[in-house]
């Protein structure tokens, strides 16, 4: 390269990086870079084409020159024309006279009225993946481009590749971030229109701002942790951590060091000192889940912290100041445990300054459809599917089921159904077997509403079930042939359970 080329080289790279820094959008940055390349190489035109891997074509992403606008709708197959060849072969190219090069595709010239003479083109590659082709056409002050021009173009192409990749990864991450935030917000929303849930919400709003302990009671999966989070989120402690600890999951001696932390060498295996949950939650809320499973000696230690706000790390006698709000939850009847002398009465009253009772889902059936739609939204979004509704049959099944696992069970059923669903509507076959089986059991003619088909389906399922799913026996009772029964089983999607 001679001195003039060096100057051109650095000027172009410098202006490209300035443009990249100043630009707010990828499209604008690319348009500006193409213009800068056209000027620096004293050319009539330049363009950047992107590869569409799905259709195996290239399309114009940015272009300069007097026919730039006409290029926007053009596309070229990968491997076709000079740009297609460069993208496919992943090799740079100088063409002195396009008209005599068999690779040149003259269609675009014909369409746009441009007369291509000399070309330099370079693949735009990032970590082994070809993203497109960068080309510059017709030097103004000489008959054709030379090697130095090509070196300059190649350097620019590698810059362009980095810009494209970084911008698209950034845009993708940004989008994912927006979607995740939506899902997280949804995840922590308490859904329900039933009077009981409305009362719970009102109670949360009243209790949350005050530093009182709260005991949340309810069967498994009724939303105890969700309520605890809502209490925290609506309290003055909301900017500080919410820390949950499950008292069932850990043996007594481990719970103590989990909660209070320990000093190095406090017990075998304590190779370093460690903060406890009281310390990590400092300023925030500590949620003691399944408090009914906590052993007696630990109960005494918790009571002491609640009364004095003082605790020590295991293996230390240095007093530490506790600054947490305690929320506890249980699916057991704590009062009964107190009566049976399995739970300290003084701790019970200390935890129970306020109480929130969460009723099982079967006692708030009017919330079921709201919850179903809520979970459909969450899982359609997180699995990138568009499941927007449920069939009448599915609704009947969900409304008739008893939900022993409460909302957690409903949530898991909808999650699995969204995964299995092939259309935009959940169908019976997307539901797990145990829930559908119950549907067969609820068959009764009294009060039955719905289509004749639904009735036929349920009747066939009932007879099948009563006859241990034996098809020939069922066909005989129904007075239809075996093939007819098979066809109906298939048509209605009846699941044969053996
Ligand atoms: N009213 C509600 N609205 C929306 N989602 C809910 C509701 N209640 C519970 N959930 C969801 O159901 C699941 C179970 O709730 P959570 O973990 O709070 O129940 P839990 O009572 O703590 O259960 P366990 O006793 O099994 O620990 C969670 O994913 C929660 O987000
Ligand atoms: Mg829980």
From TrEMBL:
SUPFAM superfamilies: GAF domain-like, Homeodomain-like, P-loop containing nucleoside triphosphate hydrolases
Entry annotated with the keyword Transcription: yes
Keywords: ATP-binding, DNA-binding, Nucleotide-binding, Transcription, Transcription regulation
Protein name: Sigma-54-dependent Fis family transcriptional regulator
Database matches in Gene3D superfamilies: 1.10.8.60, 3.30.450.40, Homeodomain-like, P-loop containing nucleotide triphosphate hydrolases
GO biological process: regulation of DNA-templated transcription
Taxonomy, superkingdom: Bacteria
PROSITE patterns reported in the protein's UniProt record: SIGMA54_INTERACT_1, SIGMA54_INTERACT_2, SIGMA54_INTERACT_3, SIGMA54_INTERACT_4
One GO MF term: sequence-specific DNA binding
Family matches, as PANTHER family: SIGMA L-DEPENDENT TRANSCRIPTIONAL REGULATOR YPLP-RELATED (PTHR32071:SF119), TRANSCRIPTIONAL REGULATORY PROTEIN (PTHR32071)
Domain Sigma-54 factor interaction: start-end pairs: 190-419
CDD domains: AAA
SMART domains referenced in this protein's UniProt entry, alphabetically: AAA (SM00382), GAF (SM00065)
Keyword Zinc: no
């Amino acid at each position: 390269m001679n001195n003039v080329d060096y100057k051109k080289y650095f000027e172009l790279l410098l202006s490209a990086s300035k443009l990249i820094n100043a630009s707010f959008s990828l499209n604008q940055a690319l348009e500006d870079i193409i213009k800068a390349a056209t000027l620096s190489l004293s050319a009539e035109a330049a363009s950047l084409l992107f590869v569409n891997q799905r259709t195996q074509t290239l399309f114009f992403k940015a272009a300069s020159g007097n026919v730039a606008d006409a290029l926007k709708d053009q596309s070229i197959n990968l491997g076709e024309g000079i740009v297609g060849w460069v993208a496919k072969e992943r090799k740079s190219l100088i063409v002195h006279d396009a008209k005599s090069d068999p690779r040149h595709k003259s269609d675009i010239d014909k369409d746009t009225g441009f007369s291509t003479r000399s070309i330099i083109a370079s693949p735009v590659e990032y970590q082994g993946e070809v993203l497109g082709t960068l080309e510059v056409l017709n030097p103004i002050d000489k008959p054709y481009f030379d090697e130095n021009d090509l070196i300059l173009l190649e350097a620019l192409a590698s810059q362009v590749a980095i810009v494209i990749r970084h911008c698209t990864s950034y845009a993708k991450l940004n989008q994912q971030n927006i979607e995740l935030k939506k899902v997280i917000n949804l995840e922590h929303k308490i859904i329900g229109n039933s009077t009981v849930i409305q009362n719970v919400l009102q109670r949360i709003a009243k209790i949350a701002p005050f530093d009182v302990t709260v005991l949340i009671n309810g069967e498994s999966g009724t939303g105890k942790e969700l309520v605890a989070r809502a209490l925290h989120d609506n309290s003055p402690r909301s900017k500080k951590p919410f820390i949950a600890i499950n008292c069932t999951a850990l043996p007594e001696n481990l719970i103590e060091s989990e909660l209070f932390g320990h000093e190095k060498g406090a017990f075998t295996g304590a190779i370093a000192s460690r903060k406890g949950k009281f310390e990590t939650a400092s300023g925030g809320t500590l949620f003691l889940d399944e408090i009914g499973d906590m052993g007696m000696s630990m109960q005494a230690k918790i009571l002491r912290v609640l009364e004095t706000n003082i605790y020590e790390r295991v293996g230390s006698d240095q007093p530490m100041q506790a600054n947490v709000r305690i929320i506890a939850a249980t699916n057991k009847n704590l009062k009964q445990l107190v009566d049976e002398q399995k739970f300290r009465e003084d701790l019970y009253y200390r935890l129970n300054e306020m109480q929130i009772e969460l009723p099982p889902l079967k006692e708030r059936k009017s919330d079921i459809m709201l919850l179903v739609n809520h979970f459909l939204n969450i899982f359609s979004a997180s699995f990138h599917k568009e499941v927007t509704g449920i069939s009448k049959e599915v609704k009947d099944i969900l409304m008739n089921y008893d939900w022993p696992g409460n909302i957690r069970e409903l949530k898991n059923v909808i999650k699995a159904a969204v995964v299995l669903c092939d259309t935009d509507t959940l169908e019976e076959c997307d539901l797990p077997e145990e829930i559908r089986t119950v549907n067969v059991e609820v068959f009764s003619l009294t009060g039955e509403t719905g289509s004749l088909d639904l009735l036929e389906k349920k009747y066939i399922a009932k007879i099948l079930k009563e006859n241990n799913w034996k098809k020939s026996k069922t066909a005989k009772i129904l007075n239809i042939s075996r093939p007819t029964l098979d066809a109906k089983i298939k048509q209605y999607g009846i699941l044969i359970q053996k």
